[in-house]
Amino acid sequence: MPKLLLTAIFFFLFFESFSQVGIGTSNPSASAILDVTSTSKGLLPPRMSTSQRNGITSPANGLTIYNVDISALQFFNGTTWNTLPNFLNTSGSAGQVLVFSTSGAATWATIIREVADQFSATANQTSFTLTQAPHVNSKVKMFVNGVRISNTAYSISSTTLTYNPVNNGGYALTAGDRIQFDYYY
């Protein structure tokens, strides 16, 4: 009997076993250490403030928490805490796209499009109506018969472009001149 007991103790002390843990399943995936299965409940990660998160000593690479101060999931990448994008951010409007910063923060941005408005000038025409208001950072380029005109020869207010011949060597537009404006909106 003592030999059998010693043999059993020997096996229990030196025998390592690896297994998967399943919650809600009797057959956990072999590729997971923890397999949580449910059709009526979710996984609730640890919830804490930024201050509490910062109190974690030597956080493991991949450690994930829910930060109650910013209402977002965060994970540690070995160097810094990163915020997972909030894909439910629906505050954008038509013509905008969702962009992500390197830290994972999501913001809405307006798409900037290029346009080329073309006109056939009338004699001495000085005012043109653009199809769009140029973007605040856009430079409007004016061409007369394919020749670029100095930006001092015209001014812009919203969608109205006013040509000033005095600042273009006194050249007054003639009937049939091809006018083109290139810009972004």
What is shown here, in short?
The protein is mainly β. The protein is built from 2 helices and 15 strands.
Radius of gyration: 34 Å
SS-based structural class?
Answer: mainly beta
What is the terminal-to-terminal distance?
A: 90 Å
- How would you spell out the order of helices and strands? HEEEHEEEEEEEEEEEE
Mean pLDDT: 86
Report strand %.
25-35%
Q: How many domains in all?
A: 3
Please explain how this structure is put together:
The chain has 185 residues and is mostly beta strands. The protein has three domains: 35 residues, no CATH class; 64 residues; 71 residues, no CATH class. Helices cover 10% and strands 34% of the residues. It contains two helices and 15 strands. A four-stranded mixed beta sheet has the order 3-4-5-6. It has a four-stranded antiparallel beta sheet with strand order 9-15-11-12, with no helix packed on it. A three-stranded antiparallel beta sheet has the order 10-14-13, with no helix packed on it. A hairpin with a 4-residue loop joins strand 5 and strand 6. The protein is rod-shaped, with a radius of gyration of 34 Å. The model has no long low-confidence stretch (mean pLDDT 86).
